[in-house]
């Protein structure tokens, strides 16, 4: 396993591996989202309390779940980068951060839109909402730190430290509805509390967001590799090949 990981640490190898997976993961993401959204928005029955307004959960819930999942993945990559000094790990963190920021922004906007008819207001300084907003600032901080230094190693180290410090916010987001009295509803047990006609399209949407996150991360990672390795012969070979093609 370690031999395989060290092979991926080679920029050229990682670039080509990402390229093989991107089309398939993109297709899976589109397929899952189409199934989840067509089923959820078009065929799932109205909720007995919220009517049709609950359907925004097919956009909101997957974004909220993966806003935390992406940050947790960044923390793992940052730990590997700091402990084993793998520069590709720092690049992976940088590739994930903008995707996570967009997912967090989607979760906040759609959560506010959902909260307006449910709570009568677009925003409250609720524990769940506030900690999710802090997560967005953490993502933006990581992006800013990574781009604040010309030395890529120093930039990766600074961003990695911030990621690891900020990971304490993840359990706060997840358990905030249990630790404090909040307006936000408790965490939904998708196995028992949601009717299957609503639960299954939500699961498809969750997987669709996951595949899109991986696809976008790999695409951005390839771009970062090209920028960093632009003076290497193998990059010049790729450019010449594209020109001939």
Automatic annotation (TrEMBL):
<dbReference type="GO" id="GO:0005886">
    <property type="term" value="C:plasma membrane"/>
</dbReference>
<keyword id="KW-0472">Membrane</keyword>
<feature type="transmembrane region" description="Helical">
    <location>
        <begin position="91"/>
        <end position="113"/>
    </location>
</feature>
<feature type="transmembrane region" description="Helical">
    <location>
        <begin position="161"/>
        <end position="180"/>
    </location>
</feature>
<dbReference type="GO" id="GO:0017004">
    <property type="term" value="P:cytochrome complex assembly"/>
</dbReference>
<dbReference type="InterPro" id="IPR045062">
    <property type="entry name" value="Cyt_c_biogenesis_CcsA/CcmC"/>
</dbReference>
<dbReference type="GO" id="GO:0015232">
    <property type="term" value="F:heme transmembrane transporter activity"/>
</dbReference>
<dbReference type="Pfam" id="PF01578">
    <property type="entry name" value="Cytochrom_C_asm"/>
</dbReference>
<comment type="similarity">
    <text>Belongs to the CcmC/CycZ/HelC family.</text>
</comment>
<keyword id="KW-0812">Transmembrane</keyword>
<keyword id="KW-1003">Cell membrane</keyword>
<protein>
    <recommendedName>
        <fullName>Heme exporter protein C</fullName>
    </recommendedName>
</protein>
<feature type="transmembrane region" description="Helical">
    <location>
        <begin position="133"/>
        <end position="149"/>
    </location>
</feature>
<dbReference type="InterPro" id="IPR002541">
    <property type="entry name" value="Cyt_c_assembly"/>
</dbReference>
<feature type="domain" description="Cytochrome c assembly protein">
    <location>
        <begin position="6"/>
        <end position="184"/>
    </location>
</feature>
<keyword id="KW-0997">Cell inner membrane</keyword>
<keyword id="KW-0201">Cytochrome c-type biogenesis</keyword>
<dbReference type="InterPro" id="IPR003557">
    <property type="entry name" value="Cyt_c_biogenesis_CcmC"/>
</dbReference>
<feature type="transmembrane region" description="Helical">
    <location>
        <begin position="63"/>
        <end position="84"/>
    </location>
</feature>
<dbReference type="GO" id="GO:0020037">
    <property type="term" value="F:heme binding"/>
</dbReference>
<keyword id="KW-0813">Transport</keyword>
<comment type="function">
    <text>Required for the export of heme to the periplasm for the biogenesis of c-type cytochromes.</text>
</comment>
<keyword id="KW-1133">Transmembrane helix</keyword>
<feature type="transmembrane region" description="Helical">
    <location>
        <begin position="21"/>
        <end position="43"/>
    </location>
</feature>
<feature type="transmembrane region" description="Helical">
    <location>
        <begin position="200"/>
        <end position="221"/>
    </location>
</feature>
């Amino acid at each position: 396993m370690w031999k395989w990981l060290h092979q991926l640490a080679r920029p050229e190898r990682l670039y080509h591996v990402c390229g093989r997976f991107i089309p398939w993961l993109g297709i899976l993401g589109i397929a899952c989202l189409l199934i989840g959204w067509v089923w959820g928005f078009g065929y799932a029955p109205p909720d007995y309390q919220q009517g049709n307004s609950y359907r925004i959960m097919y956009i909101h819930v997957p974004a909220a779940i993966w806003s935390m999942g992406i940050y947790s993945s960044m923390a793992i990559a940052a730990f590997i980068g700091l402990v084993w000094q793998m520069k590709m790990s720092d690049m992976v963190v940088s590739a994930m951060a903008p995707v996570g920021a967009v997912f967090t922004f989607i979760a906040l906007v759609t959560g506010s839109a959902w909260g307006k008819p449910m709570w009568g207001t677009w925003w409250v300084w609720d524990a769940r909402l506030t900690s999710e907003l802090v997560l967005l600032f953490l993502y933006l901080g990581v992006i800013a730190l990574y781009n604040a230094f010309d030395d890529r190693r120093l930039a990766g180290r600074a961003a990695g430290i911030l990621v690891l410090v900020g990971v304490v916010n993840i359990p706060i987001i997840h358990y905030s509805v249990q630790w404090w009295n909040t307006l936000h509803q408790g965490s939904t047990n998708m196995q028992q509390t949601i009717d299957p006609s609503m639960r299954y399209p939500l699961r498809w949407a969750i997987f669709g967001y996951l595949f899109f996150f991986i696809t976008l991360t790999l695409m951005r990672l390839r771009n970062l590799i090209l920028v960093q390795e632009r003076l290497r012969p193998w990059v010049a070979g790729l450019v010449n090949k594209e020109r001939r093609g």
